[in-house]
């Protein structure tokens, strides 16, 4: 998901809509905005579909007045059951004795089932099926006297991954979980401030990137006093999601002080060093494979070309929720550039193989177009484990790499060769010169290693085997 908030500007919701538009790649199912105006109180709008199709209407935006607003773009993750309902769309809102508060959450709470059971038993009335709603109910039960303190209380009970943007009548609040699994950054916007999942959304509103919110940090921002920083959690070594670098974030974002584009290009360089091949053409699977393909071509000296053309009017394939739509999706979205491919030995670079659906279809299309050989090069290690921290990977059984060896996968996909970057190679590409520290890994890489930095307790209860 993507989260965004703004304080201290006229018509904050307009800025939030723009920010969410820049974060659309993080969630395409639905979006929502809550604003607050001193005379009009809290207002909210939640809609299915793209930001640009909803939050561009003047009529709608006029219903969201005020100098303070937050928003969310949703993409349903592992825990969600069935079709999203509008009541599952964030931000969530709660009314407390000291006033209202709204929250938008990116990540996944790994003990949400247990918390929900406990809260319902004690009288909470849930409105949605979302794990994130627990936070509001935990806040309601807290005995603290102000909302930021209630939020601290609530988040100390929550396990898993969370970046949160929240607001009260006068405050914009941002929090990252102690491991800092999901991103959150701070920006300065004229006299006001912005919080965003990624820096690309600060760029679109002309805000200046100030810094990341630290893992385990809470910032409370007011128009008068600016940013106050609090550390509600016991300090731990951070474990940022390495897959944000590979795929999830936009290439024009900055993570830490690294350009995501440059990291991805470097992944391609490492991949070319680790898995060389004689070929005539390096092609990305657009768009997610593009920077890595550029790096691969550069390092290998094999010419780069656009052998696959993407229809710009389709979204990301994997966010489409059903298998049937996903299967069609590949052809609706990608087509082969026959004139370039014909007779060539082609290296195809993609970011990841999950179910293998995309790769299989693409291989067929490339061979139909007359390619002599097809070699897959993948910018991440085999995805053998599901993510429980906010990225939508299917159940373990559906992951190709969970049930097949690399050679079996090559056979299954029907390609001449298939190679993945090593975990160490990936760590080098993100800037860890000596690779992964096996005793204390610098990142979360559970979907590749099976080493979960936070025990996925709800899933273990459901029978998941680590
Ligand atoms: P597959 O077709 O193998 O199931 O999905 C792989 C494609 O989905 C890749 O091209 C990749 O861009 C995209 N994808 C990337 N990340 C993820 C993810 O976390 N989960 C899923 N399901 N697909 C992803
Ligand atoms: Fe990221 Fe993978 Fe960890 Fe999920 S399991 S947070 S996708 S590195
Ligand atoms: Mg892709």
Automatic annotation (TrEMBL):
Glutamine amidotransferase type-2 domain residues: 1-224
Gene3D superfamilies documented for this protein: 3.40.50.2020, Glutamine Phosphoribosylpyrophosphate, subunit 1, domain 1 (3.60.20.10)
Keyword GTP-binding included in the entry's annotation: no
The keyword Ribosomal protein belongs to this UniProt entry's keyword annotation: no
Note describing how the cofactor binds: Binds 1 [4Fe-4S] cluster per subunit. Binds 1 Mg(2+) ion per subunit.
Class in the EC hierarchy, top level: transferase
Active site (UniProt): 1 (nucleophile)
Catalytic activity: 5-phospho-beta-D-ribosylamine + L-glutamate + diphosphate = 5-phospho-alpha-D-ribose 1-diphosphate + L-glutamine + H2O
Cofactor(s) needed: [4Fe-4S] cluster; Mg(2+)
Enzyme Commission number: 2.4.2.14
GO biological process terms held by the UniProt record: 'de novo' IMP biosynthetic process; purine nucleobase biosynthetic process
SUPFAM superfamilies documented for this protein: N-terminal nucleophile aminohydrolases (Ntn hydrolases), PRTase-like
Keywords: 4Fe-4S, Glutamine amidotransferase, Glycosyltransferase, Iron, Iron-sulfur, Magnesium, Metal-binding, Purine biosynthesis, Transferase
Residues the entry annotates as binding [4Fe-4S] cluster: 241, 387, 444, 447
Gene Ontology MF, one: amidophosphoribosyltransferase activity
Pathway: Purine metabolism; IMP biosynthesis via de novo pathway; N(1)-(5-phospho-D-ribosyl)glycinamide from 5-phospho-alpha-D-ribose 1-diphosphate: step 1/2
Residues annotated for Mg(2+) binding in this entry: 288, 350-351
Family, as annotated: In the C-terminal section; belongs to the purine/pyrimidine phosphoribosyltransferase family.
Function: Catalyzes the formation of phosphoribosylamine from phosphoribosylpyrophosphate (PRPP) and glutamine.
PANTHER family tied to this protein: AMIDOPHOSPHORIBOSYLTRANSFERASE (PTHR11907)
Protein name: Amidophosphoribosyltransferase
Organism of provenance: Marivita hallyeonensis
């Amino acid at each position: 998901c993507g989260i965004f908030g703004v304080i201290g500007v006229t018509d904050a919701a307009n800025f939030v809509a723009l920010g969410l538009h820049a974060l659309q790649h993080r969630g395409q199912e639905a979006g929502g905005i809550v604003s607050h105006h001193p005379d009009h109180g809290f207002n909210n709008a939640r809609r299915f579909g793209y930001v640009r199709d909803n939050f561009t209407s003047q009529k709608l935006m006029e219903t969201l007045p005020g100098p303070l607003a937050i928003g969310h773009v949703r993409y349903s993750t592992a825990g969600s059951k069935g079709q999203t309902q509008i009541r599952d769309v964030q931000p969530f809102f709660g009314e407390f004795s000291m006033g209202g508060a709204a929250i938008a959450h990116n990540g996944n709470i790994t003990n949400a089932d247990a918390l929900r059971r406990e809260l319902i038993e004690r009288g909470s009335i849930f409105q949605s099926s979302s794990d994130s709603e627990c936070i509001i109910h935990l806040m309601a039960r807290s005995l603290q006297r102000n909302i930021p303190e209630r939020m601290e209380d609530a988040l100390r009970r929550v396990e898993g991954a969370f970046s949160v943007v929240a607001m009260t009548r006068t405050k914009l609040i941002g929090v990252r979980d102690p491991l800092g699994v999901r991103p959150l950054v701070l920006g300065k916007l004229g006299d006001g401030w912005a919080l965003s999942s990624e820096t690309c959304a600060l760029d679109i509103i002309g805000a200046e990137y100030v810094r990341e919110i630290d893992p385990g940090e809470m910032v409370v921002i007011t128009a008068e006093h600016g940013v106050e920083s609090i550390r509600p959690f016991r300090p731990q070594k951070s474990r940022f999601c390495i897959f944000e670098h590979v795929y999830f974030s936009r290439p024009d974002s900055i993570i830490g002080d690294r350009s995501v584009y440059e990291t991805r290009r470097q992944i391609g360089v490492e991949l070319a060093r680790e898995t060389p091949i004689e070929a005539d053409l390096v092609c990305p699977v657009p768009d997610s494979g593009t920077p890595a393909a550029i790096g691969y071509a550069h390092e290998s000296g094999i010419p780069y070309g656009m052998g696959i053309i993407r229809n710009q009017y389709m979204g990301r394939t994997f966010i489409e929720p059903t298998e049937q739509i996903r299967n069609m999706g590949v052809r609706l979205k990608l087509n082969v550039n026959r004139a370039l491919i014909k007779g060539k030995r082609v290296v195809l670079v993609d970011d990841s193989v999950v179910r293998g659906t995309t790769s299989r279809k693409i291989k067929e299309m490339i061979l139909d177009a007359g390619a002599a050989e097809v070699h897959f090069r993948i910018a991440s290690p085999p995805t053998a484990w599901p993510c429980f921290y906010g990225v939508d990977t299917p159940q373990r059984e559906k992951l190709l790499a969970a049930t097949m060896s690399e050679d079996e996968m090559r056979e299954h996909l029907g390609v001449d060769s298939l190679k993945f970057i090593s975990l160490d190679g990936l760590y080098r590409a993100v800037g860890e010169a000596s690779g992964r520290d096996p005793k204390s890994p610098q990142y979360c890489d559970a979907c590749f290693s099976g080493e979960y930095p936070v025990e996925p307790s709800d899933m273990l209860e459901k029978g998941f085997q680590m």
